[in-house]
Amino acid sequence: MPGKSGFVALLGRPNVGKSTLLNRILGAKVAIVTPKPQTTRDRIAGIYTEGRGQIVFLDSPGIHKPHRALNSYMVRTAQRIGEEADIVAHVVDDRRIGREGEDALVRGILANLPVPRLLVLNKVDRMGAEAASARRAELTEGGFYAESFLVSATRGDGVREFVSALFARLGEGPAFYPEEDLTDLPMRFIAKEVIREKLFEQLEEEIPYSVAVQIEEYKEEPEKNLVRIRADVLVERESQKGIVIGRGGTLLKKAGTAARLELEKETGARVYLELFVRVEREWSRSETMLRRLGYEPG
Known about the structure:
The chain is an alpha/beta fold. Helix content is 36%, strand content 23%. The chain has nine helices and ten strands. It starts with a strand and ends in a 6-residue tail after the last helix.
């Protein structure tokens, strides 16, 4: 019996909860999540399959005013994700005004997409019912969105209704991925993201945005139930190297241990993880370096 299928893009400014919403829908962690904005840098596909069919959710970097080559890459990635989708969900939160015209940037991108636009007002548990309803009415005035939803990604409120509405809008079609898949990302990419997440959690202020992770070796040894991972942690200045390593190596060790434990859960195997910190000056401003790191700026 044929089911529904399609691609749904999650777009919005930084730190509105797109990745948390994706993980809540899937009931599993596919996208890394930290309290810091601009954590997501790539297209993250989350595959939701059930009796009604299959929805491929496309998580995206937060749309913001770019200041470096990396930020420009992130915004272009978000725009391409919107162009791939059958439905676009604009995720907003309880903050009324984004920085540097972020809301206008998002709506400008959405306005050029010839697919249904849905509004998802997230974090309503922090707002209260009356304030959330008023905010929704304000945002939907003028008919820019085909439909709107109040959700709390952290608690799960309203998420089931949102997913049901997506199935109602999507047409019949084949599943794009096997039923058991949750993402199309290879483990090598997941390892890079998990390491970066754990570093983000340990580092403060602007340092995380100067950090990148490059997997130098990812080797599976099934006979030993072992995965060997060697990764470089890139920073942009010599002064940042000491901060990332920490006094006596404590910060890097703490982040590495947390990453290893999570990757052992992901792989079901023992993980031997080596991390090395090196300086790659102004890597986030260099399109050549972005390509080497897998961030295709073109």
